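Entry details:
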Amino acid sequence: MTTLHTFGCSITQGYALPDVVQPILDENGNELTEKQVLELGDSFDWNKVHLYQPSDYAWPKVLADKLNVPVINHARRGACFNQISRQCAVAAQDIYPDDIVIVMWTYLSRLSLQWPARTSVPFCNIADPNSGFKTVITGFNKLLGLDRHKKSNKTTDEKIQDYIEKSTKNTYLDPMGIYDRYYNNLVLQQMTHGFLAASGAKIYHLSVETQPVLDQLEEARKELDITLQHPYKIPHPDDWYSLLVDYDSAFVILDPSIPPAENDMHPSVEHHKNFANHIYKRYF
């Protein structure tokens, strides 16, 4: 039987949709106001509020219902290219020739650090409050599994955070680091398609971005020192990057004429429904 497998970040998971958000209650069971929530600070578990699971309102489930097939939504909030590729690698053994696979790649600028007990999404090199999901705001890690260990204390937390800031700023956010990261993300993306295609399933690649990754890589190249820009000593992407990615459909899931999810900037139920209908008409 055909199964739909989807991979991606919060937009594919369906973050902030009604069935994956639990109200914050006081000791009497009354829902807290937004002001009261802010006053709580870090004293409550965000993962109990924003459930770490896919939403039935998200486009993968809506699309699967239209296709009359079961769906496994592997997407998780905050995922970078590395994490999405890992989602695919973990699931690959359960993907069969009759299946449908849709990978919705996230923002190329997103980066993360991986540890056994934590995933840190510390920065994007685009730090513009008008850039939407490209910018990782303070406190974002609370929603992504960077929760305090029972043996954590202020000293260890500050030491880890200091490492995150210094290592990412020095290694990944400098123009030389940005180009390196973007280039390697494209290699990872190409290789991910390779092992998915080996399953025999139908593979579709989407993006939450409207700007192609090759254009972003070219912008990063122009920011390099002139001595690093050319000639190419590494293979030019035109010689090996052959992935067909749908960037146009992102305009539907990010339609600014439709209000976003309640109390959030993520796509709403209507966005997801429209997107599922769009993908169904375009590909199926």
In short: Residues 22 and 49 are 5 Å apart (CA to CA). The domain at 4-283 is CATH 3.40.50.1110 (Rossmann fold). The chain has one domain: 4-283. DSSP finds ten helices and six strands in the chain.
